[in-house]
Amino acid sequence: MSTASLEKSRPTRTHWLITLYAGGGEFCDGYILSIIGVALPLLTADYHLNSFDAGVVGSASLVGMFAGGLVFGYVTDRVGRQKVYLFDIAAFILLSAAQFFVTDPWQLTVLRFLMGIAIGADFAIAGTIASEFAPRDSRGPLLVIMVTMWSVGAAVAYVVGWAMMSSGHDVWRWMLASSAIPAVLILLLRFGTPESPRWLLSKGRAKEAEAVLKQMLGPDASLEDLEADTASRTRYGDIFRGAYLRRTVFVSVFWACQLLPIYAITTYEPTILSSFGLADGNDSYLGSVVVQIFFVLGSLSGILVINKGRRTLLLWSFGLSAIPLLCLAALAHPSPAVVIVLFAAFGVACFASQCLQAIYPSELFPTGVRATANGFATGISRVGAAIGTWGAPVVLDHSTRLAMFLGAVICAIGWGTSYILAPETSGLTLADASAADTDPGPRRRARARRDISSTTPSPAVKEHS
Question: Taking a C-beta distance cutoff of 8 angstroms, is the pair 333, 105 a contact?
């Protein structure tokens, strides 16, 4: 009698729901981190902030993400995915609402920092839990969908901000507090999400892990293909030892190089577009909405190539991202249409590989430290993002073209790092991809391709609620 396998199954309804609920956290993350870009000019005018102070408020959540990622990734590996999965969304709700009542910029800075801690925790858990449930052949596409929700959240934030622009005095308070609404919905949906069977098995709770699999895949579900991936301990220092040190450096650096220009541009997008000639006010915000739509399309485009090569996608993404930024730096007086087209091209090229921020940390590290590695990379990458967000207004005050050139340089650094360090993990099980004995190379990839071509995925079986 054949057994149902998590690695070889087709995506079931439960797989899709877990991916979408994890993506709901990404939606909230994108919304929270982008709505500040719409609200910040209004807040700056109300409180007469200089560029330095505006940068502190804008980057506070990114500094918080550094702390949240470093701490809660490890906590997730220790206490379980499910608990942190609910805690961070509950924190989104309370902190979002509290922003409405601030009376001083320092209060908002503190709240944004605390929100960043919760967001850092969610980044550590979302990709981890989604990847641990996803089948081998569907892991890449499912995580593309999950990560795209960040771009959708950012786009919705700009649409909401643009629609609220003429709502009167203190409208920035309503903008910032509005992130509580999607967070409430996601919290309600996340209730009932099962614990990861891989994590349960890694803690010796085999009966519970088997029960989760049987609920998803039916009575013939087997733990056999999960055992190799779960034979690891939870020790923070393990991600800095042996082969995992190289992987930790790679994931942290490429992630930081992606985020530094993205966050700097997203947070100050209306200001940047205005400096290129788009009118101040609603026109620049409308331009931001248009650019954000292309960011979403770029993120979704990753689904077309993610199973053809993780490394290839990353290298092409970094290389193509630098070109429109260099054009913006070189052109003295581009027309508004050219500016929009170049930012849209940057968004498509850069966001096409955003899914790798969730895929690579999840595939390159075993279950015992998967969330720890995800959290550490989240934290370190946010150092780069915070530097970009804090420094952007200072550089923009000097020269927008210089800011675009620096963004292109960061993309070039990301390309070089990826060329040297990026492995190829397409077609591998989590156990093979995360094994420490050797880097995923041609022999192991060839074996994975033979497995894919010779194995017919198990049909989706009826789920049991």
Answer: no
**Phi and psi at residue 353, in whole multiples of 5°?**
-105, 10
CA–CA gap between residue 299 and residue 293 (Å, rounded): 10
How much is the pLDDT for 455? 40
Across the range 437-447, mean pLDDT stands at: 48
pLDDT above 50: residue 59: yes
Which SS3 state, helix, strand or coil, does residue 458 take? strand
Q: Does the pLDDT of residue 360 top 50, yes or no?
A: yes
Beta bridge partner(s), residue 458: 9
Q: Output the pLDDT for position 144.
A: 92
Least Cα distance to 220 among 11, 455, 401, 5 occurs for 5
Euclidean distance between CA atoms 89 and 121, whole angstroms: 10
CA 359 to chain centre: 10
Amino acid at 39: A
- For residues 316 and 352, give the distance between their C-alpha atoms in angstroms, rounded to a whole number: 9
Three-state secondary-structure class, residue 260:
helix
Residue type, 2: S
| β-strand partners of 4 | 221
> Any residues with CB less than 8 A from the CB of 234 and at least 6 apart, and which?
74, 77, 78, 202, 368, 369, 372
Contact 26, 150 (CB under 8 A): yes
**What string of DSSP letters covers 89-148?**
HHHHHHHHHHGGG--SHHHHHHHHHHHHHHHHHHHHHHHHHHHHHS-TTTHHHHHHHHHH
Round to the nearest angstrom and report the end-to-end CA distance of the chain: 24
pLDDT bin (cut points 50, 70, 90) of residue 161 is confident
State whether residue 4 is helix, strand or coil.
Answer: strand
pLDDT digits (tens, 9 = 90+) for 292-324: 788 888 889 989 889 989 999 999 999 999 999
Q: Per residue in 388-439, pLDDT tens?
A: 767 777 787 778 888 889 889 999 999 999 999 999 999 888 888 888 665 5
pLDDT at 266: 67
pLDDT higher at 316 or 14 = 316
3-state secondary structure of 9: strand
Helix, strand, coil percentages in the chain from 3-state DSSP, rounded to 5: 75, 0, 20
CA distance 438 to 391: 40
Query: Which residues, other chains included, contact 18 with Cβ-Cβ below 8 Å and sequence gap of 6+?
Result: 129, 130, 133, 193
What six digits make up the tokens of 257? 């190089």
Q: How much is the pTM?
A: 0.81
Whether the CB-CB separation of 98 and 46 falls below 8 Å is answered with no
Note the helical H segments in 302-335.
310-330
